[in-house]
Amino acid sequence: MTCMVAATGGLLFGYDIGISGGVTSMDEFLLKFFPNVYHKEKSMKNGGSQYCKFSDHLLQLFTSSLYVAALVSSFGASITTKALGRKISMLIGGLIFLIGAILNGVAMNLGVLILGRLLLGVGIGYANQSVPVYLSEMAPAKLRGALNVCFQMAVTIGILIANLVNYGTATMKKNGWRVSLVLAAVPAIIMTVGTVFLPDTPNSLIDRGQKEQAKAMLQKIRGTSNVDNEFEDLVIASDLSKQVASPWGNIMQRRYRPQLTVAILIPFFQQLTGINVINFYAPVLFKTLGFGDGAALMTAVITGVVNVVATLVAIFTVDKFGRRGLFLVGGTLMLVCQIAVGSLIGSVFGLDGHGQFSKVLGDVTLAIICVYVAAFAWSWGPLGWLVPSEVFPLEIRSAGQSINVSVNMFFTFVIGQLFLTMLCGMKFGLFFFFGGFVFIMTLYVFFFLPETKGVHIEEITKIWRSHWFWKNYVPAEETRV
User: Which residue ranges traverse the bilayer (predicted)?
Assistant: First the structure.
């Protein structure tokens, strides 16, 4: 129950990911804040390139500005998480997100709208830094994968709820976009109130010198008084971590090269799958493909349902089949789908962007996109957060997770800011562009990512010592300084 409550932090991230695409497709919102886009879209109904109808840097800034703030705030969250505990960081994130949601709902000009988005980003930076670490430290090794995936499950539920909200508010004659934006306060309240009642992790309590409370908490969450071995491992890890003068300097040492590589490449590849093309701009993308306003929002709901159901697959299989298997199967399917979608769009629109999808081709494209979303939802979606959160030793864990979050947020910003412009410039070739990265990341997993299933979080260094490549970097006996 503790892990389930903590995982609701993903609702913040998911709701915001899902809500922005629907809001930016609403005529009232566009007319108020982005009138140029509104008039361009209406004029292109009578001709013009379908690829470029929504291309506008300010419109993209509305979506992407949040992730710049999340990137910067993740470093502050690292300091808070280590000094005050995971729980306090989660609480701070929820409160700041709540303020941002209220500002977005009452915004009367673009400046206030962007300020609200920036505050949402700070909240997400704190939540995404602290929640995965919290889940990994609280969960027993045999259930760590499933319980950590609950964070991604909450993200997908947040996306689905946002898509349903947008579908409903789009029918409102006035202020539907305000309702969509201000309802982001609901997941913020759920997380903030829930966090008040959460305990802190044994790892964090030990790290702050509260060993008796830590042992009592470990006994409580493991359901047994026989926790001496695990508790001793935690104490030793904490003592070693305190010998590290600078986690940020230490993480750059050669012995931590495997973990640093994971912290950078996993979130990088996660965003270069192109998934946030669907998450951010699904209604806009489907309107580009010729779907009507209501149909475009409904297709976003359909992909949201697929996202939730497929994430359930990850919850029930990640600790049975392991991380590598899900990564490889998901990556292969995503590659096939990217090639198929790019080919279909190219066959209809060509290079000039003129054309119209038939109902049959539109439905086929939607079906392929649903397969793509499902493949991501059981692989790179949840595992992109799980694997980086479980591979770091305690002395560099907060720094490592901050790098993971900041890289993720940076490339989320890049995709959010540039996708519509890239679609206008690269046309259907954009989907082949993302497909190329899916191919590369699948090779990376096959050759360089070891299996972490069932390994205790404080013993994770052992897997690097036995890996064919990374054993050249990790010493046979740890000599942390």
Answer: 58-76, 88-108, 114-135, 147-165, 177-198, 260-282, 294-318, 325-346, 366-387, 399-422, 428-449
